[in-house]
Every structure is written in C-alpha cells, then in structure tokens.
Amino acid sequence: MTITSQYRQDGEVLVIRVGEKFDFSNVEEFRNAYSDLPDKTKEIAVDLSITEYMDSSALGMLLNMQKSLKSGNYAYSIENARPQVSKILEISRFDKKFKLR
Amino acid sequence: MKILIVDDEPINRILLLNMLNAEGYEDCIEAENGSQAIEKFKSESPDLILLDVIMPDMSGFDVVPQLRKHTSKEYLPILFITALEDKASLVKCLEVGGNDFATKPFDRHILIAKIRAHLKIRALSQRIEQQNKALLLFNQRVAREHAIVEHIFSNAIVNDPRVLSYFDYCIKPADSFNGDLFLCEKSPSGGIYFVVGDFTGHGLASAVGALPVTRAFQEMSQQGVTVAEVARELNNILLKFLPHDMFMAAVIGEIDSTGSHITLWQGGMPAVMLTGKAASELRQRPSRHMALGILDDDEFDMACDTVHLAHNEQLIIVSDGLIEVMDSKKNMLLEDGINDVIKTKLINNEVITAQALYESALLFNVNDSFDDDVSAVIFSAQPIQLLPTVKSQLGLPSTHEVALTADLLKQPDVLQRVLQIAGQCEGVQSIRSVLYTVLSELFNNALEHGVLKLNSEMKSTSEGFHAYYELREAALKKLDEANIIIRIKSLPSEQKIQVSVVDSGNGFDWDSLKNVNNDESFGRGLAMVHALCSKVGFEDGGRKVTCVLETGPC
Description:
The complex is a heterodimer of chains A (101) and B (554). Chain A has 101 residues and is of the alpha/beta class. Chain A has one domain: Transcription Regulator spoIIAA (2-Layer Sandwich), CATH 3.30.750.24. Helices cover 29% and strands 26% of the residues of chain A. Chain A is built from 3 helices and 7 strands. Chain A has helices spanning 27-33, 56-68, 83-91; strands at 4-8, 13-17, 21-22, 43-47, 53-54, 75-79, 99-100. A 5-stranded mixed sheet of chain A has the order 1-2-4-6-7, with no helix packed on it. The mean pLDDT of chain A is 88. Chain B is of the alpha+beta class. Chain B folds into 3 domains: 3-128, Response regulator (Rossmann fold, 3-Layer(aba) Sandwich), CATH 3.40.50; 158-380, PPM-type phosphatase domain (Phosphatase 2c, domain 1, 4-Layer Sandwich), CATH 3.60.40; 398-550, Heat Shock Protein 90. Chain B is built from 17 helices and 20 strands. Chain B has helices at 10-22, 34-44, 60-70, 87-95, 108-156, 161-164, 204-207, 210-223, 227-241, 320-323, 334-347, 354-364, 406-409, 414-424, 432-451, 462-478, 525-532, and strands spanning 3-6, 28-31, 48-52, 78-82, 100-103, 167-172, 180-186, 192-199, 248-255, 261-267, 272-274, 283-285, 305-308, 314-318, 374-380, 398-405, 483-491, 496-503, 535-539, 544-550. In chain B, β3, α3 (60-70) and β4 form a beta-alpha-beta unit. Chain A binds chain B through residues 17, 20-21, 23-25, 27, 31, 47, 49-57, 59-61, 63-64, 67-68, 79-80, 82-85, 87-88, 91-93, 96-97, 101, and chain B through 189, 225-226, 228-229, 256, 261, 263, 302-306, 412, 415-416, 431-434, 436-437, 440-441, 444, 459, 461-462, 465-466, 469, 472, 518-522, 524-525, 527-528, 531-532.
C-alpha cells in the first residue's frame, strides 16, 4: 500500500497520504481512497510529505477527484509538499484549486 | 613452600628442620646469623621465616626491618622462635614487624599449626596480588581500546562547523561515550538536514550505533533524499546492526533554505517545542512514531510533519535525559515541566538557549549530575546561507541510454528503474525530483500517445479518466512491437542534464498542444515540461523530444 487514508478532526477531514512516487500507477488506489466518504466529511487533504516526485498524471488524478466529488462541495487541500514537488504544483497553478499548506 | 630457618645454634636448626621435613615441608634452607639470613632471603625468596631472637651478630629484632625492606606486596610471614618469655619481648616481636611467635621449648603441634595458617594467608595474598596484576593489565587494555574507539568516533562523527553554526546546542554525555547523537549536514537544495538521536542506554555499547547512522546520514544528505527516506533507511540500518533490545529514538529534520519550513520525522523522542510570537503561543509537537530500529520495513511509518516558523522563532529538541531528571520528591520534570520552564523564560523575556535549558534541568535535579546522556538542540528560524561546497573534483559527464522493447515496456516497474539510473548521474542531486517528473512525463507521452496511440481527451470526464488507464493497461498487454529509447546525458561542467526520448510511434503535432485548459484533468504534461526545462525541442515529426534541465551549482 503506497496510499493510506485516515480521518482527522472527528471524521471531518479525510487525509490521503501518497507514497514516495505519485504517478498513474496509483490510479486505482488513489480513487479508492476517496470512495465511500462519510457524511460528516467536509474537507479532503492530500498529504505529500513523503512524496519525492509527481507527474502530470498525478495532477490529473487530483483534478479528477474534484470532478467526481463535485456534488459533495468539499474543501480541498494539499499538505506538506516538499520544495521540488511544490514547484510542480505552482507551475500547474494548483493553488487555484487546492489550498496549499 | 620454601621455609628459611634462622638460628645460631646448629642443634636448634636441626630440630626445626627435622620437624618440618616430617610434616612434609621438604624445601627448607638455613642461616646461621642475621646477615646470612638477609642474604639468603634475597637470593632464595622463601615463603616463611622462622627467626631466632638472640644471635651474636644482630638480633632477630634488628633483622626483621631489614627483611621488610625487601618484601613485596605479598604477605611474608615471619615467626619468632624465642626463649624470651616476658611480655615486653613478645610484644616487641610483633612490633618490629614479626607476624607471630613461639616460645622455646615450643610445642610442635602448635608451631606447625601456626606455620600452616600463615602459609595459607600467604597463598591467599599471592592470589590477590596475581588478580590485581591481571586487573591492572585489563584496565590498561580497556583504557587503550577506549582511546582507540574515541579517536575513531571523534574523526567519524564530525559536523561541518558552518552548518553547526545555525544551531545552539548543549550535549553532555553521562560517560566518556555518548549515546546521544547530533548530526547536521547541508542539503543540496540549500537547506539543512539534521538528526537528534538517543540510543538505548548510554556508554560505549550505545554509542557504537552512531557510526553506521552517521555514515548513512551523510551520504543521504548529499543525495538530497526526503526526510521520510532518511528515516526509513536509518531504520533499516539499525534493524540490521543493533541487537533486538537496542534502538534509537530520533528527530530527523530538513530545514529549507528560507529557514522557515521544517519537515520533521519524530520517533520515540520527547515532544519538540516551537516558540511563537508570544509566550502563550509555545507549542508542543509530540513524536508520532516508535523509535528507529524496532519496526520491520513493511511496518515502518514514514509520515512526516511540516512546521512553519516565523523569523527567530525557535524549534527546540531535547533528549529524554534532560526531562527525566528527578527532584527530591521523585517527581520528574517531563515534557510539561520543560515546557513550563521555557514558558516562564519567555514570559520573563529571557533568551532560550540550550545551555540555559541544561542548567534549568540540573537545578531541578536532586543530584548534581545526570545519569543519562543529555542533549538540547535549538534552531532559530533564519535564512540558510551556506555556500555550495566547491568540489575539488570535476563532476563526471555521463550518458545513459536505455532501449526499451515491448517486453520491457510491459514491466510494471520499468519507469522506476529508468529513474533510478537517472538519479545516479553526477550533478542531479539538487533537481532529482524535477528530473524524475520530466522523465516520467516524456516516457508516458512516448508510451501512451506515441506507442499505444491513446487519446488524452478521453480523460476529460471522470469515468473516461479511469477508462483511459484501463485502456492503457489493455493496450500495453497486447503490444508486441515497439521501442522507446531514453537517453540521459549529464554534463556537470555545464550544470545541465539533457534528456531525450525517441519512440517508434507516428509522431504528433506539438504546436497544437501548447495551450492548457487549467480545469481539464489532461493535457498539462507538456506545459509542465516546458516550465521545468530550459529547452524543449521536437524532431522527426514529434517522435523525438529533447529537453535540457539546469542543475545549478551544487
């Protein structure tokens, strides 16, 4: 398992922690991480603290998550990205779609 | 056992000699007077002396002090055989250094019993002396071995003073060897890596683990890997090196070049503390993990936290030795105690220094020293301005070319293996993640669009997004003739890395893909490559792409 998920703040925040590499090989796992959300969940946070690199398919997966959860009106954030990964997110202007922390 | 008989009367000597022989003491020597006794004593080293008091040249009382001058530390029994019976004389026998006396005419049973008792004491004292000698030798050997190990440690565990200058620290071992460890290294991206570790116990046994940890930490720092990876690798090393009952609690961190973002992995250490603008903003951040060297790799959790510090705000790390001090009522200081100490100092506008924390703990302590190794390490947020080390050697230029056929393209980890090769090139350390992203992008473009001829627009709907990847898998399975050639050229002297990817597909119209719609979950790869590289060029109708990345000085 390279992707793990857990809840924070009494289930209000789903934290999806991605492994060292974030690319299309995680497609299934990443999708499973946000299926079956409990009703009280309001925010989805993607934790990239241990992620060394990501590519455009990972960006696509992030956006796809937002698309498929559109009806839920969740808040989205990306946490703890390392400098070089942050750079990718900034280049792709992901700050417009995710709160970067 | 050799016995020396000293008497001026031959008849007395014969009497004693016969008696001793009869009791099994065969090795007896004789002296007729005091000076001969001293001679024989020196040349023969007897184990016991039977000494007459009244002799013509010098009395037995005068002989004893002479003999004692030459005796070693071993117990040498001297028994007076005397005709004198007055108390004063008998007392004098002992006062001059004799050990016992027998009055003439002596009772043979009593005299033999005394001789036996004294010889037994001598044997015991000889054994003690031997043991003392062995112990002394052993001590000398241990001291020498410690000196050797200390020498190795002091050479192996050295922090760069320029990096060290960003920390305020106070590290006091309980023994000559430290079971606590503080390492810091410059990171290739201009920040700092550090480890504050605490091995089980203290002394030499707990210090030995520091060597492999230090080596691995220094190597990984140079490669610029993530804190998570450092934690994982150190865990593996310690699992392999340390016995099962030993492990290392640790705080591992990476400070970015602005000095305000710190990534932390904390296992088994006391909570780290973070100061804020006001005393009331002091925060504690407890360890999330178990110490290193306990969990197997598949159980190991690499999760890290990121903390943010404003300028001059402090990150304070202490080892358990500092907070497990006890006052006279056996109360321990603990995490909350040290937290209160810091808060009080902040309220009083005192500067928090490692030395001050050490002294506060010492003040709390009922003893005037610590039983465990004690460490306090403080980083005050500030931009890191470490000049890159000027490499005395020129970086090696290299070219790696990987030709992937259909069979290889089907390997699930093929891209990982290519990335691994790329990661080995000299000069890539500072842009490793970026290089990985670019390579991954170019490879997937070549495979998905060039070779497998998939259409990205499929990915515009959520269902299509997943269908796309299912299609990719199916198409890859059926693939039987294709190739992708990846060439990674590292030019450290020009601070450049050139990556080119050629595929056996039909090529594409690169100009039409320049515009990105930010809302779409596809089509941003090429734009990203453009943004990350200083040069991107297509050839051969889009079948070949060449990118140049700037590595910068490192």
